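Subject: sequence -> structure tokens, single chain

Hey, anyone have a minute? Need the predicted structure for the following. Not urgent.
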Amino acid sequence: MVLNYIWIFFFLIGFLVALIDLFLTGNTEVFNEMLTATFSSSKTGFEIALGLTGVLALWMGLMKIGEKAGVIQVFARIIGPFFHRLFPEIPKNHPVNGSIVMNIAANMLGLDNAATPIGLKAMNQMQEFNPRKDTASNAQIMFLVLNTSGLTVIPVSIMVYRAEMGAANPADIFLPILIATSFSTLVGLLAVSAFQRINLFNKVVLAYLGVFIALLIGLIAYFTSIPKEEIGPISSFISSFLLLSIIVSFIGLGWYKKINAYDAFIEGAREGFGIAIKIIPYLVAILVAIAVFRASGAMDFLQAGIASFFKFLNVNTDFIDALPTALMKPLSGTGARGMMIDVMNTHGADSFVGRVASTVQGSTDTTFYVIALYFGSVGIKRTRHALAAGLMADFAGIIAAIVIAYIFFH
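Reply:
Had a minute. Here:
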């Protein structure tokens, strides 16, 4: 229901802002721009789903091999005690535990193309024991918020964009993004745990979190100890090597267990194709609404209001030009990426505002897109507290990104 109101809000506010623009400035082109935006964004939604089809088929096929070979069950046993506390609805040793682990690992490595199909697989597995098929379960909400919080250890794609835009050291945002996205994930976890009354002070939960934090600190220590120009190539190598190792281990174990890996792959690929088709209406719906809101000038109006507020408080406003990336981030990943590139193109990749935009881009994921994609893949219409918790994580990540950028780069 909440997503329904948000969706309607985008259209109504966008149309209202356009009317005000028409009466105050006589701008008749705004309606043409809004209409054009609906067509272009609906096409974009279809193209995204179409682009996901091949990737979904690939990774759902590989996941099916891993499932039949027993790899997923191994992951489930390793992480089971921790996930049993965070996801008490999920049966112990269920294959979905392994899917969740692999999805989170892919997200941490910045491998969106691998993380999304694995995440969709996990969402479908959780839907199997969801008693109310049109309503998000507690487990699905926890999983979605952990996704939308966007915990990223190695932001490969952002470093690539910064390199293309001429940054002297594309990896200088590595540590700020790592800190900001950690804040986002922590707040998301705390928010969902509060809604669902999950006790995070359990000794098992604290032990797993302690190991994770220790590994995170070790990774930070390692990357801060090597020359900055080596961070990008090394992190890219780690991501690619681990991903290919997973693929080969799945296929190799399948061969060892004497399963028909090819048939298993085809079976999983068919499932991926079906999911890609199913999500098209959900993607088109949310992307069109966001496009109308943006084309109407409502986003610009919101940005100007925020800038005026900070100026009134006599707060440094050097970050204001990066606000479009921050405001777009919860709405559209593609839009936020475009805003980040535009900022770097206008001000320079190594400018303060360019670095702020890059840090914001990596601090969290796209809540509305993730909700539309993941819940849409299983036909969920009632999102319960997922949107509220996801936006809390977004807000924490964005605020942390701006503050940390001032500490590192201002």
